[in-house]
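Hello Y.,

Per our agreement to keep a running log of every chain we model this quarter, I'm adding this entry. I've kept the format consistent with earlier entries: sequence first, then predicted structure.
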Amino acid sequence: MKVIILTASTMKKTIDGKEFSGKCVTGYDWVNNRVLRFVGNKDGAPMGNPFCDQFNLLDVFDIPVLGPCPKSCQTENVLGDYGKAEYLGKYEGGIDTLYKKMQTMILPDGSFMWNRSYKLNDVSSFTHSLELIKVTDLKKIDGQPKKCEFLHNGKACKFFSVTDPEFANMESYIGNAYLAISIPSDGYEDKGFFKFIAAIYPYRPNAQSTKEQEIKNDLSIIDQLRLISEGVNPMTGALFDFDELSKDETACHYSQLLAYKMGLIKKTSPGEDSLNLQVKQIYERLRKWRLEVANAQGVPAFCVFSNKDLLEIASGDIKNKEELINVKGVGPKRYDLYGEAIFDILKEFI
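Predicted structure for the entry above:
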């Protein structure tokens, strides 16, 4: 199961008198538009060492899922084979794009943020336990190092606990941010269920010069273009043929800029090609094949290979299985899935 890691927050939990400590790890399944909560055992314990430390925010992992183990309102709980989890790289689409995509999730029970309080008295109606929300005026509460307050849709939300381990290193005033906000599987006797913030994604400095703002806007465009370059509509997550988009002159200009920003090609002297003709032809052939595979699997193109991976293959002068496996971004698992097809393409250019 390919997921983008949303939270990897510290957690302690007591089950049947035994205390478990580790991380609360959740991931967003882009293809099926859902959140999964990866637990340490069928009782919902946090994921412990040695596995939990390999997961960091916005990492992309392929995690084998052994089966669901829902508990109370945390119906997303699943048990994974974490020793076989494969790191696929960092999610490069940007937190804003991820937030927009997650807003399309169907939550028939509604948002638990309708109540601005940090507490819910009853969670029995909820079929989900984690949401990504956009807030402003986020700041720490004086004298309470693990609590914060913020504005959500212009309304004050106070005394929310934070389990993001990076919170201690953040400034007292954070400002604008995306928050992964969660509710626990169990309440505290008659006191209710306390929402908590499992991850904080600051998305803009609070004071910027005009030039700094221009740079920030440029990065926002690049974040969206990364998805476009992979054949994904950044607003909807739908697949499309990049070759059709590239017929538009403006899109061609931005895609070239994007290639420079991502380091896929280098600026060269006038009259020089950034890549030799054969490498370009192999690269374009691989991209066409990748789109066919992605469409057949119903996944975004970057879930098959990134542009950078394809460029490494195209320019690598690969002659055998070992050389292809050693290309960064391939590895044994992807070789088993796609190695034969890639060699068939490379043979076309011998």
